[in-house]
Design brief:
- This protein has a single domain (8-197), classed as Rossmann fold.
- The protein contains 8 helices and 5 strands, in the order βαβαααβααβαβα.
- It has helices spanning 21-35, 45-48, 55-59, 65-76, 93-104, 114-118, 136-150, 177-197, and strands spanning 8-13, 39-43, 79-84, 122-128, 153-161.
- It has a 5-stranded parallel sheet with strand order 2-1-3-4-5, sandwiched between helices.
- It is globular and about 50 Å long.
Amino acid sequence: MNPAAPVHLLVISGSSRTGSLNLALAREACRIAEVQGATARLLDLRALDLPLYDGDIEAGPGVPAQAGELIAAIAAADAVLLVTPEYNGFPPPLVINAFDWMSRARASGTQPAGLKATAGKPAGLLSASPGPLGGLRSMNYLRQYLQMAFAMIVHPRQFALSRADQAFDATGELKDEKAREAVTGVVVSLLQLGAALAAPRGE
């Protein structure tokens, strides 16, 4: 896949800790996207430093400005790929909190409201876990969350990387060819969907 106008992919990892398996998988997805001729941006949710959602903060100081950074990044992308760990079978607070704040943000100047930025936006899902399910439960809950609350178009193709603590080599690349092919399949399918749904260039 080498589109004339490169598809812009936003990749979001649900974990930013040192040694994160999902961050490693997100970086691998970025490399794959770029090989396919797309541009890829890896967004660090932890760097946004959003407080825990609190209605009193919203009613007082208001929605933190950092939520606008996430909105702008999603609005600028043709597709969004979320790479999620699993915390007790559910998506991590880092993702849910950021998206909850974004959902409360209203339009400001040229920036759309949070829910406007996500509506109809193609999304893809990957997960990684040391366990045998590879974070599958978290990914399935996140699919429902993004579709129902944010009206995103979540591609049916997804991949859960099990035994992820053994999956990467010293350079951070996937060792198993089948796993790499599965991740590539998700990325390519999402890029194709993003290209098909993107507004015509030049308008």
